[in-house]
Amino acid sequence: MVKYSRTPANPEKSCKTRASNLRVHFKNTRETAHVLKGMQLKKAQKYLQDVIAHKDIVPFKRHTGGIGRHAQTKKYKCSQGRWPEKSCRFLASMLQNLESNAESQGLEADSLVISHVQVNRAAKQRRRTYRAHGRINPYMSSPCHVEMIASEAEAEVARGDEQESRPKKRRGQARLENGDTA
Question: What is the value of pTM for the model shown?
Answer without folding.
Answer: 0.81
